[in-house]
Amino acid sequence: MRTAPLTRKTPLKATTGLQRTTFKRRAPKKRAGHEPKYLAACRGEPCFLLIPGVCRGELETVVPCHANWSAYGKGMGMKAKDIFTVPGCFRCHQCLDQGFSLTDDQKRATWEWAYNRWLPVRAGKMNEGAAHGC
pLDDT category, 11, cuts 50, 70, 90? Predict the structure, then answer.
């Protein structure tokens, strides 16, 4: 076991200019495909995922659930566009994103089933909002 501290035989070389440059912060990039109207349409809706054995119909925990597949625009470090969202309760959303009770094919089939049922409901909400001048 070593008792003496570790020391360098040769000092570190200073690179020119790097220590003196100031770090400029960049403005955060806006997420492509971010459309709050699609997220707002999910508010107050029931869970559309309805995963058997998982969903308890908890209306207070419903949030927009994005698609998790590259066919819908998801990529490394990127969410799918907001148009590809479905209202889902916390438990179903967690099962879809991190759950192990469903296979990947079952997760995708569940999301797409919910999305196809959600589209006409969302379209009705959008048309209703346009009629009221929202």
Answer: confident
| Consecutive H or E run containing 44 | none
Whether the pLDDT of residue 65 is over 60: the answer is yes
Q: Dihedral of the CA atoms 86, 105, 116, 85 (nearest 10)?
A: 20
The answer to whether the beta carbons of residues 87 and 46 sit under 8 Å apart is: yes
The tens digit of pLDDT for each residue in 80-121 reads 889 999 999 999 999 999 988 899 999 999 999 999 999 999
Enter the tokens of residue 38: 């699609």
The structural domains of the chain, ordered by start, are 36-131 (3.30.50.20)
How long a stretch of residues is the chain? 134
Alpha helices in 45-103 (DSSP H): 90-98
Q: Which of 89, 96, 85, 87 is nearest to 43 (CA)?
A: 87
Q: How far apart are CA 91 and CA 55, in angstroms?
A: 6
